[in-house]
Amino acid sequence: MQYARTDARELARGVDGLTAGDPRVANWSPAVSPANVLTLRTFHRLGSRASIEVDGWLKSGTRYTPLVFGDVNGDGRFDDRAYVATSNDADSSVANGIGRLLTTAPSGAGTCLRNSLGTIADRNSCVGPWTASLDGTAFFFGGSVGSHSMGLQFQIFNVISGLDAALHGTDRMRGWGGYGMPDNMLLTATSYDASARRYTYLVNPAFGSVRSSSASQNPFGMRVNLRVALSRDRVQQQLVIDGMRRTHPSTTALIDRYVAQYPNVGFEILRSADSVGMSKTQRDSVTAIGRAFDETLRTIWRPVAEQIHNGLSVADAARVIAAARTPAAINYEAYAKMTRAVLTDNQFARLPADAKWFLATGALLSMGLAP
Question: Do both 211 and 292 map to the same domain?
Answer without folding.
Answer: no
